[in-house]
Amino acid sequence: MVSLEVDDELARQAKEHLDGAGADAAVVAADGAGGWPPGAPYDRVISTYAVDQVPWAWVEQTRPGGRIVTPWGRLGHVALTVAEDHRSAVGWMQGLATFMPARGTPPASSWPHVRGTGPADDERPFARDLHALKDDAHLIFALRIHLPDVQISTGMDDDSVAGGLN
Asked: What is the predicted pLDDT for the residue at 18?
């Protein structure tokens, strides 16, 4: 097992903790986007940071039939299987999760032209029932695909569902 950590100090701490847990893992200070060719081919590549595109190095370094699992964008995670011809990977996406983005990923937009920068001067109850927005994972997933920079939040108060955009 090889664990990559882009930050030298975090790599040192990770090695210390893995050793303390009795795990037989090499820890390398390197950018995970490039993978780690010296240990390839891998049966599994598991990323713990969100990427907007799955790095091709991960596909190249995973054996045919091997799996790649990674948080993807601000939507959820993908699970891919590398094809037998080693020229592609296919799989599925599971939405509705948030992870730390890869370094260099621009921050999510605050959408000030939608939300404004101060308190709303015309705040009023929303006439539609927001239960679908709170309870329908497919609807939330579709909204996140269509509006990837908008963060949708919902919550319950005493008598209704409240929603918001960030």
From this structure: 94
Q: State the Cα–Cα distance between residues 82 and 80, nearest whole angstrom.
A: 6
Residues 6+ apart with CB under 8 A from 75: 93, 95, 96, 97, 141, 144, 145, 148
Strand partners, 104: none
| Judgement on whether residues 78 and 121 belong to the same structural domain of the protein | no
* Alpha helices for the chain (secondary structure H): 8-20, 56-60, 112-115, 131-135, 137-146
| Residue 66, domain member (yes or no) | yes
Same domain, 98 and 116: no
pLDDT in tens, 29-61: 999 999 999 999 999 999 988 888 899 999 999
Distance CA 60, CA 58 (A): 5
Using CA atoms, how far apart are residues 136 and 101, in angstroms rounded to an integer? 25
What sign results for the dihedral spanned by CA atoms 34, 39, 42, 46? negative
126 versus 50: the higher-pLDDT residue is 50
Based on the structure, what is the number of domains in the chain? 3
Q: How far apart are CA 32 and CA 84, in angstroms?
A: 24
Tens digits of residue pLDDT in 140-159: 777 776 776 666 666 776 66
